[in-house]
Amino acid sequence: MPGVTIKDLAKRYGDVGAVQGLSLTVEPGELVALLGPSGCGKTTTLRLVAGFLTPEGGEIWVGERCLSSSAGVVPPERRRMAMIFQSYALWPHMTVAQNVAYGLRFKRGLGRADREARVHEMLRVVQLGGYEGRYPGELSGGQQQRVAVARALVVEPEILLLDEPLSNLDANLREEMRFEIRRLHEEFAITTLYVTHDQAEAMVISDRIAVIEHGRVAQVGTADDVFLRPRTRFVAEFIGKTNLIEGVAESSDTLVCGRLRLRVGGGLVPGAAAAVSVRPHDIALAPAGGAPADALRGTVTRVSFLGDSVDYQVAVADSDVVLRVETPVGRRFRAGEAVALTIAPGVCVALGAEEGA
Amino acid sequence: MPRAGLDRALPVWVIAALVLVFLMALPLVWLAWLSVSSEGGATLANYRAVVADVALRRALWNTLVLAFWVGLASVAVGAPLAWLTARTDLPGKGLLRALVLASFVTPPFLGAFAWVMLAGPNAGLLNTLWRSWTGSEHALVNIFTMPGLVFVVTTYTFPYVYIMVVNTLALIASDLEEAAAILGAGRLTVALTVTLPMVLPALMSGFILAVLQALALFGSPAILALPAGFHTITTQIWSFFQYPPKVEQAAAFSLPLLLATALLLLVQKRVLGRRGYAAVGGKGGQRRPIALGAWRWPALAACGLVMACSIVLPYGILAKAALSRAWAQPLTWSNLTLANFTFTFVDYGATQAAIVNTLELGVATACVGAALVAVLAYVSNRRLVIGHQVVGFLALAPIVIPGVVLAVALFIAYTRPPFVLYGTLAILFVAYLTKEMPTGYAQSDATFRGIPADLEDAGRILGAGRLRILRDVTAPLARSGIIAAWCFIFIGVIRELSASIILFTPATKVMSVVIFDLKEEGQFGAIAVLGLTMLALTFGTVAIMQGLLGRDVLGARH
């Protein structure tokens, strides 16, 4: 089971650089999600890996096999990959069994009986046993999705590519299919690239997440890494809600923003401008009355009850910083009420400088 | 960047594109060159001769008058008919739509013949009836006049406006009109302030298409204007080819017509493209028919009158002429005969060969044409060659070339080395292939647009090469669309007159040319028989096509 190595990949559309020097390593058997906003180049990257597009520069390797470099490009049909499309791309003129069996036609030394047995077995795995003779047009969206999955897995590809496979499903089904795809990945352990713009989906499904920005990898790591330790402002803002506080580093662990002083876990360069990210649910609120004298104080300016939590907007006293705070349902504050805020040093993440920020 | 083994099918795409360029470029370059050539080198003398000649200037003027009035009349007939069949509770809408389709595929020159028999000043049926009812000495109507010509041409041109408008109306959701109604607008106000502005681009576009048809038409003016003693551009170009041929003048006279049609199509594109509300509504727009109330029956009567003029009366008189010894006499037992059929198919020398030629050309052009447009549409849809946009443009370009002009260009290009085709069926084949390319291409293009590239990519990533995918996935999905393109081309070929009339030789006559010859001999019975044969072929093909497409050929509805 080989992995995938992408080095300095580049692709332009006219004047627009869709992918600009993207590098990424996917370990054998690993599922990596390419996560980013629309237009960030994640789908282009996937289509470059599949061979539907020809890159202007860079290399794509699968294990020891070079698929794409300045010396030449291997066409998609010889890449030993499988892909699941956003539209499912099921052939309407073939039955479910014919769709699934199609890729097996190109496997040497596989008899008719073998093929049928494997198709049958795979349809059972995706819980579509008995649907062999149906046409795609006679299936629901979720069932079509399962056929697409079966068609891709039955050929036992070296690499599996998924392009926003769940975005055409309704919310309940989407959540169910997330776990289903994760289960299948654990069962087959195929090296997988998974394109999505949905961070929850990426977090549930993937081993690691590569956050893509402007055709480059902004950060790659586990869900914990990118959520708890975002390296750039883009990653911090794209993954989950956050408060960005900009100021000047007084020491390696203290950020000053007007009269607001924040204790940070570390990583600041003394004297330099810096930004830190604080998640709304990492800030605690208490009544102003009982707080110690040196506590951070503020005034609640907006309260929204969200059902399982309460969302506050708090103007920090003696500064123009406004923080979003999310607390469990329980002690409730009203708009206009004075509060004390507690921000533990460990929850403040210093963000590195980045281009364009 | 080398593309090792990227696309083994590349030569197919490139060759198809080159064939297209060759088909388009060779005749048009020759046409332009000959229009400015003389024995003493380049000259503008041919153009000067055209402009200086009073008779030629009159032909130009006649064409403008004809085209303008046909355009206007087609809008006046086609637009209300479209609204009535698309949006109201008019009875018999399905039948009306079918009759409009019939009028759309009826060869205009057959209609013109029929109207000669119906409204010729002396023996025309309507005039004979008028005389016998009123005892008058004079004719009621004379079809051999400019108004007569406008009337007959409009009868078979209004479907162009109808199609544009009815397809636009089908896209306008009722809630747009209801939004106006809820604000207090009456039915007429809604129609004038909401519906009409939204279909206005379609109306203008239909007007231009109708004008284009009238500009390019040869058959009807030849049948109706020549006896009346006036020329249009197309009949004038044709007469340049009567002995002694004046090819250079014909070329000089052709280019203005070519430029005019190109310009009009450009305007039409602008009109349709500027505001995208042909696509308004989209999904979810329900359409509820508007109640006509007391107006139902008068409206139906008006529609019936249009259809009588366009289909019922002409087809009736053709059938009568085919079955009677003397077409102008009443249809009694003694007048009834099948002699016209034996005369046409057995005794008259040219017919059998012409039918064989027509069918041969029809099948050959349709097969080669359908294959060619399929490849071209595929190349341009999947962007397989550099300059794929040019492919689409070139394939649609012949739409601006009137048949007569195309014939002049082909005559020039293929009567001299290196390609001497004149006098063979091959030159007719090239003419038909070029002329029918746009219709076939538009159909194929729509077909491939309906097949997402994902379906092909899904197969390739599983191990199938591009040609394999064409066979396993693309071809099965495109099959009915390509057969429909075949049918479109076939219908276009069997009714073609305006290019054939210039390119035929005694050995290469086709049905339409024989019909034209029979006119010179006054053989109306035989004309009717051949005309009905042509109609039967046409309607048979249309029926096959509609079955394949699962819809009628007028609209985009599935």
What is this structure, in a nutshell?
The complex is a heterodimer of chains A (357) and B (558). Chain A is built from eight helices and 21 strands.
Tell me the series of helices and strands of chain B, N- to C-terminal: HEEHHHHHHHHHHHHHHHHEEHHHHHH
> How many extended strands of chain A?
21
**Largest interface summary:** A-B, 36 and 23 residues
Assembly of the depicted chains: heterodimer
Order of helices and strands of chain A: EEEHEEEEHHHEHEHEEHHEEEEEEEEEE
Q: How would a textbook summarize the main sheet of chain B? A: 2 strands, antiparallel
Form type of chain B? globular
Low-confidence blocks of residues of chain B: 1-6, 276-284
Strand content of chain B: under 5%
Q: Structural class, judged by helices and strands of chain A? A: alpha+beta
SSE inventory with pairings:
The complex is a heterodimer of chains A (357) and B (558).
Chain A: E1 4-13, E2 16-26, E3 31-35, H1 42-50, E4 57-62, E5 65-69, E6 72-73, E7 81-84, H2 96-101, H3 112-125, H4 141-153, E8 159-163, H5 171-188, E9 191-196, H6 199-205, E10 208-213, E11 216-221, H7 223-228, H8 233-238, E12 243-251, E13 254-257, E14 260-263, E15 273-278, E16 283-287, E17 296-305, E18 310-316, E19 322-327, E20 338-343, E21 349-351
Parallel strand pairs in A: 3-9, 3-10, 7-8, 8-9
Antiparallel strand pairs in A: 1-2, 1-4, 4-5, 5-6, 10-11, 12-13, 12-15, 13-14, 15-21, 16-20, 17-18, 17-20, 18-19
Helix pairs in contact in A: 3-4
Chain B: H1 10-35, E1 37-38, E2 41-42, H2 45-52, H3 54-87, H4 93-105, H5 108-119, H6 125-134, H7 146-169, H8 174-182, H9 187-216, H10 219-228, H11 233-240, H12 247-274, H13 296-323, H14 339-347, H15 349-381, H16 388-396, H17 403-413, E3 415-416, E4 419-420, H18 425-449, H19 453-461, H20 466-494, H21 500-503, H22 511-520, H23 524-549
Antiparallel strand pairs in B: 1-2, 3-4
Helix pairs in contact in B: 1-12, 1-15, 1-17, 2-12, 3-7, 3-9, 4-7, 4-13, 5-7, 5-10, 5-13, 5-23, 7-9, 7-10, 8-9, 9-12, 11-12, 12-17, 13-23, 14-23, 15-16, 15-18, 15-20, 17-18, 18-20, 19-20, 20-23, 22-23
